[in-house]
Amino acid sequence: xxxxxxWRIVVVTVLLPIILMLYYFKVSPLYEFSLRLNDVNxxxxxxxxxxxxxxxxxxxxxxxxxxxxxxxxxVFAQGLQKLSxxxxxxxxxxxxxxxxxxxxxxxxxxxxxLDNVVAGFFLRNYASEQPSTAQISILTDSSLERIxxxxxxxxxxxxxxxxxxxxxxxxxxxxxxTLPDKDQLFRKYPTAFIYKDYIYPSLGxxxxxxxxxxxxxxxxxxxxxxxxxxxxxxxGAFTPLNFYKPQKYSQVSFADVAESKIDPTFFKDxxxxxxxxxxxxxxxxxxxxxxIAGPLIHATFLSNVFQNDTIVSYxxxxxxxxxxxxxxxxxxxxxxxxxxxxxALYFTSxxxxxxxxxxLYIEQNAWIDAFYPLIxxxxxxxxxxxxTFKLEEKKSKFIKDAFSSYLSPDLxxxxxxxxxxxxxxxxxxxxxxxxxxxxxxxxxxxSLTPEALVSLLNRYFTPMTQIVMEKGxxxxxxxGDAIMAFYNAPVSMDEHPAKACEGAxxxxxxxxxxxxxxxxxxxxxxxxxxxxxxxxxVVGNMGSNSRFNYTAMGDGxxxxxxxxxxxxxxxxxxxxxxFTQKKLDDRFLTRKLESxxxxxxxxxxxxxxxxxxxxxxxxxxxxxxxxxxLLERDDIQGALDTFKNCYESYGDKVSQKFYExxxxxxxxx
Amino acid sequence: MRxxxxxxxxxxxxxxxxxxxxxxxxxxxxxxxxxxILKNGSIIKTNAQVGTKLYQSDIIITSEKSKxxxxxxxxxxxxxxxxxxxxxxxxxxxxxxxxxxxxxxxKNNAKNGTKVNTDFATIGVKGTEFIVASTAEDKRVSLxxxxxxxxxxxxxxxxHRKKDAQEYADYLQSLGKEYTQYEKKLQEEYIEYKKSFELxxxxxxxxxxxxxxENKIDKKIEQEFxxxxxxx
Lengths: 669, 232
Description:
The complex is a heterodimer. By secondary structure, chain A is α/β, with parallel strands linked by helices. Helices cover 47% and strands 20% of the residues of chain A. In chain A, strand 8 and strand 9 (198-201) form a beta hairpin. In chain A, 41% of the residues are buried. By secondary structure, chain B is α+β, with helices and mostly antiparallel strands. In chain B, 24% of the residues lie in helices and 44% in strands. Chain B starts with a helix and ends with a helix. The interface between A and B is medium-sized, with 14 and 18 residues.
């Protein structure tokens, strides 16, 4: 148990830092897998984008109508004028170069007249030239001045700005740059960038500032705040986007707008994003919902804010879920023995977690990673299972090594399969203990050479041991010529007193066959005495760290040994205690001998002789018990006659011993 | 009667609060180049002109080659150098997030002291004239007269101070030949760790993260004072 716990601590201390490092450092390709797995959320988003946001696209239809982009700015200005009823126009495009004066003037005058246009610009890390001081000076009017915490905001070295005229004519400017994730998909929306020591809002944030007439802040906790909306901000002050189904976005063709095919009132008080979707111009972005026009990314952000669909990130809790899924397999392997149930529990725990994250997303827009907990579960479960397997293998080997000589193969395999049946630490348990000893062993040993003696003992021990094992007993040890065995441990069994008695009777029978062979070979005959007792004793692995045995100890064991010794006194072969006899059924024939005060015991124990259940023995037992009954009634002569009759008729040595003892007592009186 | 008094007190409190929020704190005295103001509650910056009134939470921004002289109703004067940004949080509290500015605070007007918040320290004054520079390259407070208290935003400052020349000579003499020991001790004495400390007149202190390096005001800084004071 300690070893298992120790291994679990090792698993946690090794796996946890590894998985947390993979998580925090966004190691490829796992990070990309996590992004893709979490993208499943978007499939579940059945909400609709805000109707207040419209995207006007320079699409294929527009290009077919007005020619390849960029157009003459007069054409664009004319189309733009049709959006005059809108609340805000966001230009997701940049007019950095001067073209012809008249067209440039037409566009800047239109923008100025509309007085609701946010001119877009983009940032870049490399450029051959910087915007003019005048351009930057105008641009600073659009900067954010009330950002409390700008730690997360990233800085860009270069910018592609609109021409001075456009910058002047626009209400404000804003940056439409964004950055993809590691897998080149756009999932996040920037709130602000730093350029030349000023913080500039993204197109979406600038639109919200104007729409709500509220300033944007990133508070001390690093959360983006505008009016009542809070934005979870990650790296670079980017906020996660909650994409809708692509077909649900409100998109119109610039050509339709320019040709007045769309009623101008359609745009009334709406935020209109004007951008390009024509493939040749390449403002097409790869997103989790597929390839979409760049302006739809701004539309997604604004819709998220308008519809209260902004994603709530639970990044801070995610490490806890990783820890949880490392611990789950450790608990499961510790408490569940069945491997199929264990695997079912691993699977169920993850399914529950995965389903919960999806429900929380649908209900609360909560974004909880489902990938790294899965990795944690797989690694932790695999490691735990391997360790459990290795420890079980080690335990099996130990059990095999420790018990193969003492248990039957069936019992051994049962024990290996169910090691929990074995309480190696020691336990108090009712056992039936068996002791046997060879009568007159000294005489036998003196008559034989050592080699012949060892050979004889082996011929005796082999069948005796086999009988113990066959009957499900555990051979504890050989003590010289004696055998000690017990039943009901290490594997529990029913009717262990009966099994022990069956074994003892079989031993006597087997021994008589052996004696026939020995007689033929001119070897001495082997006669044994056996003692059987049933009692609650302590059983377990006992010994030192380096050498130990699975054995039983206690008064019950001592009594079995003493009973074996009493056979000499009574001329019997097998003596069982009253505790064993009580548990035997009709199949067994026993005869009561008497109550004896055994050494080390304060209370006398009633002892019985176990006999083979046959007609003759039943007659002997009946006659003997009749004699005992006469003795109890003080009919000494009657008892003596019955004892005499019994040993003379059947050669019963016990009756002879009792006859002699009663006669002697009578004479003493 | 008690109820009427209570209602009157509450009304008075609201009126005072309302007044406090809309109270004019000062105005633009002088403008050079392009100076913008971002009014509290607005997202559009407007051009500052002489006489433009200033209120709580207004932000004054100067462009390149521009200056602004701000005079508050308690006679505190702030001269913003080019590319500077100061938010007037209230009459006694300012937040300077960019550029360089000279603050001239009248002693008798400072009840609780005036505070200037920067991203490197909080500067507390009770009547004095000082320059605060808050740019990426130059984070500094230079003091001509009076006393300025500097408080760390996080942890302690590691203050590197120079010993007075005479003190240095006396110390050297007293130690005689044990110059090595002196040098070691001198090193230890130079650095102090404090959460807040006072800056004495004619000293300037520059900050690199939490390290503060104290020096005497040199000619360059004196010129800086003259240049900004000339815009008063």
